Structures are given as C-alpha cells and as structure tokens.
C-alpha cells in the first residue's frame, strides 16, 4: 500500500486555499490509506523564514493548525498526525541530506529566490528548507505526497536527493510522486492580488475558521469584473474572483444562475456576494462548530498529537537506524 506524507506550516491562520488545495486531500487520502497517511504541522519549517516567523505565536498557531485539520474531518485515530519538532529524526536526516545536496540546486529553487529577495540577511535555514522537506518525506519512505502546485520543484529535488543517497549508500529510499487536487490548484486572494497565501497577510486570505461576519466584510469590498461599473452593466464572471469562489462553495444550479445573471446584468455584484456567503455559511459552519468543540477540549488535541508523534517515531526510528548504518556511523 502507498505511504502518504504531507506537512502544513503554522505560520498563519489556515485559509480556504489550504483547505481546498491540501487539507481536504489529506482527509480523502486518510480514508483510503489509514495509518499509512502521515501528516504533520511543520513547525521547523516555520522558523526558516524570519519574514513570517513570530516566536510568541508559534505554539498557538501549531495547536490551531491541528484543530483546523481535525475540524475539517481528519481523524487522528485513523491517520498519523503530529508536530514535526516532536520527532527529532527529521533534523538528523535533514543534516545528512544537506551533505548530499549541491548549493546550486538549493539556490535555484523558485521559493528560495522569492523569499530571499524580501530579506536583507538570508538565513542558511531558508536555503536548506528543501533538504528538510526531503527528510520529512523520505524519513517515512513515503512515495505519495499531496502538495500544492508551487511545491513541484521541491518534490523533484526530493526525488534527486533520494537518487543521490541510493547511489552513494545503497538502495534505501523510494522516489516520491506529487499528488495534486486538480479542482483547486490556484485560489485567488480575496483582495484580487494573485494567489491566496498566508505570506500575503490577512487582507488576502479567508480563514476557514474566520468568523462569518469577518468573511462578509472581506467579500463586500472584494473586487469583481472591473468592466462592470454600474449595476446595469453586464459582466464577465470568468474574470471575477467571486465567481471562482462560487465554484468552490456553491451548487451547480447556483453557479449557473450566477453565471447567467452576471452576463445579463440580471444580478448585481452585492447580491452575488450575498449568495456566495450563504454557500460559505452552509459549508463552513459545521467546521466552525467542530473547531469550537476541539478548542474546548485542548487535552484531546494534545493527546492526539502526542500519540501521533509516538506512531511517527515508531516508523522513523528503524529507518533512521538503517540510514546511520549505511552512512557508516559508529554503533554503540
């Protein structure tokens, strides 16, 4: 049976881009592969970029990311879910991989280039991020990795690192493949400025646990078709991010009604947004209710994370022992 691995950063509130792009995929794969689905909150990755790392909030956001994943339907009793820093083998394997990975390969990573341009002083950890990601995946000999489209380059490097290790020390690791959610690869930010992302701030994102009244305030002022200046002007839903959101949250009948109403000026933008909010309310309210119940029982969440780390280490330890032996470290 395939072994699935994926990680999610706790650098901000989980948003609908995370939800449709990754978290629902986690649930689906977890139902299919059970404990062979291994997921973690990658708090070690979170500290590699000082532009988005807030030490005072890291523990809280790590906890909230676990709550969000459980609230959307990920069952910690059926999958392995834990916090990255609770399994020290991640750091150990990452260091070994840094000795195999050329600096040039790391410097050509698009995400490194984008993030390093925002910094006056670039920390080595940001450069080494892909080696740690490779360790996250290969520590469990995972062969299936649900990721966003923007992580494709990192998965290719992970495959290359696996090949380098296997060539140098003997066949050990599989070459993992990326699995994408084809229905939601690029979800636009609610401010209209490119893809939704935590690094772009709260004005760009719609949090899956965000209060519905706060979501409405963002939708109310969100840009629509710029050519539709007056209520009586026909619009083009194909260039409207609100219509993109309808495709995620509304039923087919509603989508068709909104599409026709926009093109004929039969529906105004505010009414279109109110219809969207109704669909989002129906979709997100049960998630909010589950999240509130989880927050009211923090011991359950912490116990689930502790159990997940125990299960992860049970897989990681023998693989790490195999790696140590093949690399040639002295065994006591």
What can you tell me about this protein's structure?
The chain has helices at residues 16-33, 43-46, 55-71, 89-98, 103-107, 110-116, 124-138, 152-169, 212-220, 241-249, 252-263, 269-295, 298-327, and strands at residues 4-8, 37-41, 80-83, 144-146, 177-179. The strands form 2 sheets. It has a 3-stranded parallel beta sheet with strand order 1-2-3. Strands 4-5 form a two-stranded parallel ribbon. The two termini are 34 Å apart. The protein is mainly alpha-helical. 55% of the residues lie in helices and 6% in strands. Helix 8 (152-169) links the parallel strand 4 (144-146) and strand 5. It is elongated and about 80 Å long. The chain is built from 13 helices and 5 strands. Belongs to the class-I aminoacyl-tRNA synthetase family. Catalyzes the attachment of tryptophan to tRNA(Trp). It is found in: Cytoplasm.
Characteristics:
mainly alpha, Rossmann fold, 2 domains, 13 helices, ATP-binding, aminoacyl-trna synthetase
Largest sheet strand order:
1-2-3
Number of separate helices = 13
CATH architecture annotation name of the largest domain: 3-Layer(aba) Sandwich
The N- to C-terminal Cα distance equals: 34 Å
Taking pLDDT < 50 over at least 5 consecutive residues as the criterion, the unreliable ranges are none
- Into how many domains do the coordinates divide? 2
CATH topology name of the largest domain: Rossmann fold
Q: What would CATH call the class of the largest domain?
A: Alpha Beta
| DSSP summary, beta strand count | 5
- Reading the helices and strands in chain order gives EHEHHEHHHHEHEHHHHH
What shape does the CA trace take? elongated
Main sheet makeup:
3 strands, parallel
**CATH homologous superfamily annotation of the largest domain:** HUPs
- Mean pLDDT, to the nearest integer, reads 92
Instruction: Kindly provide the radius of gyration, computed on alpha-carbon positions and rounded to a whole number of angstroms.
Output: 22 Å
Hey, roughly how much beta strand do the residues contain? 5-15%
Structural class assignment: mainly alpha
- Name the helicity range: 40-55%
Subcellular location: Cytoplasm
Pfam family, one: tRNA-synt_1b
Function: Catalyzes the attachment of tryptophan to tRNA(Trp).
Protein name: Tryptophan--tRNA ligase
């Amino acid at each position: 049976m395939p072994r699935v691995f994926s990680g999610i950063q706790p650098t901000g509130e989980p948003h609908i881009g995370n939800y449709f792009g990754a978290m629902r995929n986690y649930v689906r794969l977890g139902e299919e592969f059970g404990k062979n689905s291994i997921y973690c909150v990658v708090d070690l990755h979170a500290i590699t970029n000082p532009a988005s790392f807030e030490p005072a909030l890291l523990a809280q956001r790590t906890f909230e990311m676990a709550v969000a994943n459980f609230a959307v339907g990920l069952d910690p009793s059926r999958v392995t879910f834990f916090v990255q820093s609770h399994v020290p083998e991640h750091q150990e394997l990452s260091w070994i991989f840094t000795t195999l990975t050329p600096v040039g390969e790391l410097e050509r990573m698009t995400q490194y280039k984008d993030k390093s341009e925002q910094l006056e002083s670039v920390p080595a950890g940001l450069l080494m991020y892909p080696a740690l990601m490779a360790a996250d995946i290969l520590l469990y000999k995972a062969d299936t990795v649900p990721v966003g489209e923007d992580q494709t380059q990192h998965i290719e490097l992970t495959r290359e690192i696996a090949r380098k290790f296997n060539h140098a020390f003997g066949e050990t690791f599989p070459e993992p493949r990326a699995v994408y959610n084809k229905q939601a690869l690029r979800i636009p930010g609610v401010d209209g400025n490119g893809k939704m992302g935590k690094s772009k701030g709260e004005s760009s994102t719609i949090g899956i646990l965000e209060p519905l009244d706060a979501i409405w305030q963002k939708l109310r002022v969100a840009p629509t078709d710029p050519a539709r200046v007056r209520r009586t002007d026909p619009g083009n839903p194909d260039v409207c991010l609100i219509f993109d959101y309808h495709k995620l949250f509304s039923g087919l009948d509603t989508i068709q009604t909104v599409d026709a109403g926009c093109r004929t000026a039969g529906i105004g933008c505010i009414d279109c947004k109110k219809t969207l909010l109704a669909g989002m309310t129906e979709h997100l309210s049960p998630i909010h209710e589950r999240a509130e119940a989880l927050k009211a029982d923090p011991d359950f969440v912490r116990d689930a994370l502790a159990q997940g780390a125990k299960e992860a280490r049970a897989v990681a330890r023998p693989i790490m022992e195999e790696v140590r032996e093949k690399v040639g470290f002295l065994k006591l």
